[in-house]
Design the sequence.
């Protein structure tokens, strides 16, 4: 059974940092591109960051470029999102997703598996 489990969310103040983690099981992790998406209340789901299955490419939404960093640890079957300089507009449920042999794309339709999400709340 495929399972993606996010952790690391919480309540922080603007300017603070958080590190999210997504642990995968039931897949050959190194064969999948991994991505983070987020969805704020009343808003559509939006792309945040992705890393290719090979680990050679990363891709970020303009809104987080320079503040967030995606990385993967294939030995631990995890993908992380380091979030710095957080803003209130970053408040959302953050979900990880997996795409077989993916190239770090922003289109959610490319992703095969999804986690349940972890809440990030940034106060001003």
Sequence:
């Amino acid at each position: 059974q495929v399972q993606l489990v996010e952790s690391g969310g919480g309540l922080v103040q603007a300017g603070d940092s958080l590190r999210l983690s997504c642990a995968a099981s039931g897949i050959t992790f190194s064969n999948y591109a991994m991505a983070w998406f987020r969805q704020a209340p009343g808003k559509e789901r939006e792309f945040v960051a992705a890393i290719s299955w090979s680990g050679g490419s990363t891709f970020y939404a303009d809104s987080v470029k320079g503040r967030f960093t995606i990385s993967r640890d294939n030995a631990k079957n995890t993908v992380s999102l380091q979030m710095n300089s957080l803003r209130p507009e970053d408040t959302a449920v953050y979900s990880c997703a997996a795409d077989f042999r993916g190239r770090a794309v922003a289109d959610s339709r490319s992703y095969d598996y999804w986690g349940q999400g972890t809440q990030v709340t940034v106060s001003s």
